[in-house]
Structure formats: C-alpha cells, structure tokens
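Hi D.,

Good news: the full-assembly prediction came through. Inputs first.
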Amino acid sequence: MWSLTRPDALSDEPVLIVDDRVTGATREVLEAGVSLGMLRREAEALAPFARVMVRDLGEEALRFEEVAGVIEALVPRVEVVAPGLVFVPLSGAVRFYGGEEPLAVRIIEELEGLMNGRRGGEALVGIADGPFAARWAAATADRGTPHIVDDTIWFLSTLDLSALREAMGGDEMIDTFRWLGIVTLGDLSRLPRETLASRFGNHGLVAHRLASGEDRHVEPREIPPHFEVSMTFEDPLVSLDSVAFAGRTLSERLLKKLRASGVAPHTVVIRVEAGDGSSRERVWRSIDPFTEKDLSDRVWWQLRAWVETAGVPRGIAGIGIEPHDLSGGGRQLGLLSDESSILDAERALARAQALLGPDQVLQARIQGGRMPGERVSWSRWGEQPAKEERDPAAPWPGTTPGPAPALVPPDVKPIEVDWDAGMPTRVRLGSRWEPVLTWSGPWRLLGRWWAGEQDADRYQLVTSVGAFLCVVSDGRAYLAGVYD
Amino acid sequence: MVEKSLPSNGVSLGIDGVSKAELAADIAAPLQSLEGHDEGLLRLRPGHVTELVGVTGAGLTRLGLRLLASHSHRAPVVALDTRGWISPEAAWETGVMPERLVIVRCDDPVIWPKVLAALLEGVAAVYAEVPAKARERDLRRLAALARARRVAVAMRPMGDGLPSGIAHLRLRALGVTWEGADRGHGKLKKRRLVLEASGKGASGMRRRFEVEDEGTNAVRVVSDVVVDQAGRAVG
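Then the structure:
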C-alpha cells in the first residue's frame, strides 16, 4: 500500500484530499483528528487550516506508475488493484531473494529510495496468504517494517468486521452481525457456513470464506486465445485523446466478447507496443469482475501513465488487453431487469461522464430534511453513494408538505412578491407580474440560530401559470422550488 | 403506474341496494374505455421523440419524469438537465426507481448534442431539456439517432418548440389549475393539467385531455376536456 496525496499540492501546505469523504491527508491534518473515510464536512471542521483538494484518480494512477515500476523491477508480475494498492505474487520471487522478509525489506528500501525525501509516499508492506489477508497485513504494518503474517487464519480472526466492508460492501449485513454480537472475523468464521448461506445468501457465504482465510473464490477457466483484443496503428498514437478513445473502444470490445460467453474477468493484462519496437505490460486486478466503466478507467489510467512518463517512446503502435481469471459470478442475468440494457446504459453514461466530467453525472438518494433541496443526497454516478447525513425515517416536524416541486434551484433565488396586509397579491416572473390567485402557508421554519440561520416562512403561491414554493426571511422573498 | 380512479364529484355512493363496488364499476366502464385511448399518449415509445411544450410551472417537468417511470423498472433512465434544477424527489414520487435514475447536468449548448448523442447510444429512455440555442441540424440528427437506437425520448425545449418533423408526438400545456390551497389554508393537493396532443403519435388529430396528478405515481386522464377550464385556479 502506498499513501498518496495530490501531487500538485504545495510541499509545505497541509492538504486534505476529498471525494465525498476524506481519501487522503497530510500528517498535520491527521494529527488534528481527521481520519480517512471521514465525511468531508466533518474533516473540514476539524482542520479548517488545510487546503481542500478534490481527488483525481487518473492523476493518482499517473503518479503511482513510478511506484509500480519500481516493484515490477524486483518482481515481474505486479497486479495493480487501484492507485495506491498492488498485489505481488511471491512464490517465485521468494526463492530468488532468499525469503519473504528480505524481499519485503528490499521493496521498502527501493521505494524509500524513490521518494528520496519527497513528501506524500509511505510504503506499507504486508505478506499473507491471499490478497484479502495481505491487504490487511499491509494496512496494519508500521512504516518501514514489513508485516509478515505467519498464521493467516489467526491474523484474520483478530480483525474487526469492518474489514469486510471494503472487500464486499454489505453495510446492512455487517450491522446485523454486530447486533448479533459478532464483532470480529474470528467470531464470524466460527459460525456454521451453511447457516450463514441460508440466512444471508451469497453475501454471507463470501463473508464466511474471507473470514476463514479462503479468499474470494474465482473459478478460472481455460481462455481461448480469441478473447484477447488488440489494435495496431500505422501512425503511432501520441495524443492523449486518441489514446483514450482507443483504450475505451478496446475495453468495450473485450467485455462484449466475454459477455457473449457469459464471463467477466477479475484480472487483465494491458500491453502496449511502442513506436520504437519496445513493449510494456501491466496487470490490473479487481476483487469483483470488471465492469465496462472499471475496465475503461483502468486502461485509460495505465495508458495515460505510460504516455506521460515517456514509458512508450515514439508513441503507441499497438494496444492489447488479455483477460484472466474469468468468472461467471459477476454477470448473472437479472430475472426482472434487462441486464444487457443496463450494461449499454453504463457504457453510455461513462461516455457522458468523459464529456462532462464526473461531477455532472449524478445519482441521488433520499435523506431527511425540511426543505426540498435538503432531502436529496447527491453522489457521482458509478461511485459509492454518500451515506445520508440526515435520517430520512426521522419524523422531521415542519417539513414542507408534498408534492415535491420538480424544479429546485441549487441555492434559493431572490424573487419579488407584493404583499397586502400580510397576504401575497402578485409575484414577478421574469419581466411580468402575475397575480397570486391563491396561496397556502405560512409554515414557520425555525433556523438554527446558533449557526447564524434566521427563521423563515414558507408559502405555496398559485398563479395562472403554475405554483411556486417561496421562502420569506427577514422581509425578503426567495424562490425555493417550482411545481413544474 | 396509471391508476384508473373514479370521478368523485356528483356521485352519491349511498344508494340503497347497490354496493359501492358495483356502482363504481358501472360508472367507471364508459370512462375507462375513453381513458385508455389517451393514456397511450402518456407513454414514451421506443424510437420516438415526444415533445413537451409549455411555460415553466405548467407541470411538464414532472410529466416528463413520470414518462421515464415504466422504463426505469428495466434499466437506468436519464434526465438531461440544462439548468441544474431538476429534483429527483419529484421523479421518485412519480414512480421512477431511485437507483435507476441518473441526472446528467449540461448547461453548455455546444456540448449538449454530443452528450445527448452519447446517451442515446445506450440508455433506453431519456428526458432531455433542450437548450434554447440548440441547432436544428443537431436536433434532426439526434431524432434520427433515437429512431435508429430505438430510444424513448421526451424533449422539453427551453426556448421555442422543436422544428417540425422531429417529434412524433407533441404535448402542449394549455393550462394548469391547482386544488387544495385556499388563501392561506390547506396545501397544494391536486394539479389538473390540460394538454393538447398533436402529431403522428396522436393520429394526426389535435386532441385535448386533462391529467390529474395528486403527487403520487398515479394520475388520472380525462379525455375531451373543454379547454377554457384551463387558466382558472381553483382555491
């Protein structure tokens, strides 16, 4: 594991890297009480002195290429999971380097040499049986000292249940386990597997396997040679745009081929041939079978990293992607949903995201709140949805009555309303005044005075062209929604 | 889900010897056959563009989102938002599955055709606000793409209506009235939206009908309404 900060951050400035949650922070920020995974708002409150930067996975992959290259020079087959995390199969390398510890120490030394006093990089190395245990061995390692696990099953049994969250999600199942008094993976592994399978289905089975030291079960199949996809270019590609297009097209072509056979890969080898005849390859691995978006992202990160670090002299003359560890597990067709339409839609949305940027393609979920704008929790499409900040099941007295307005401005907009003895008489819509035919309200909205908010009144105003939700605070009216 | 409910005004359900259910069925029978005809106009058909024309406030955003509801049960659906104002809460109320609704925000009229084209390549149903500056040539190409990919599309022009020949069905809002609010009392409960359907999708005839919406996923369609009911708010 390799801790990353945004490479464009100034070297002497405390930095907080965020997505919806904290994904990275400098030491000063961590010392202020911020932890990884914390909600962005909480982290900003704890470390107001830090410069907040939005996470850029593509940039991280680019910078991580250097790290992967160093490890690859020591052990040939490096499997990248995400920028910051690589798995290295040790069976052959251990014999060459004379043991696990000398190899791990060598990797740490090489990486420290790479950093050479630069800020932001910390190598955490863990060795255990299987990727899941190795990932947690690394997470619990000290800086500069490899954590070599001799007894993987015992090590896993000491881990908290939350270790499962990253590998398989399933917050609800983990909460249920806790409620039943199961707090460690050891507690979980002692339960009968068939009981878990019957109560929690496939999720329970996978959780039990991971807790028992049997890593995620992949059923490798013989790969017919025609599954590999490749492209060659008469004029080597040098511009990032054309590289991105070629990578995305190739990823789509590969998964389309595999889908026809009902399988999806857990591992892919990305190969490029450079214009000078040299070639490079890198293995990417995923716990779940790659989806179109996941694979397109990884291919793009890898190609961009090679192009921008001059890893492919004279441009890219050929690209190939070879799938491995094929499994049918991730492509089970849904009974009530059209799986192929879902995959097509994912591809289309990934393209829209590439055109507009990740912040413009959004999904939402309900959360608690009194105003329409507060009741929606937004997250980027394709990413883990942000946990709602306010419980939607709570009563929320004083909430704005339904139906919900179909248009809600991101921030309330000032609007001109004429009043006569406390009753609205007309409202200005654009350049004209519309008489208010009837209205309902006011409903009092008590502001959090300790946070500087003022009390307000809400009105539903009906005109001949439609109805509007209006908030009146301190004598001024604001538009909070349109019942369009 | 379109629910056929009964007309409530002027119907007494206390007649001796007749159960409520029997009476309801008798009353509903002629109405249902009429309703079925126009309800079809409130379905997005694959490969066709439905145009929603009317001023902001008429209720067309909610109607457009509602058109995505049945498609969302099978695959993701998209609302292409040019103003950044579309609220998913209204879509959920109309029956769109929350986990299947994706909102794509694009306020740049230059990129907008490319984004919609990308979406039409894979998404089964799209509600798209059309920027005022969208070019006719782009709109025609997008309509052709929707036909080729058999995507159900609802377009809501932010400026003038779409050029002729693009929309298979045109739904124009003639007026909207609200019930429930009464000079400070009550709250908004029911909207009556009078629509005029025209174009090939309406068999080449202009038809007027009314959509009653009570803020749930059920709407009631009443055919052949008299148009001058519109524009008058009911307190």
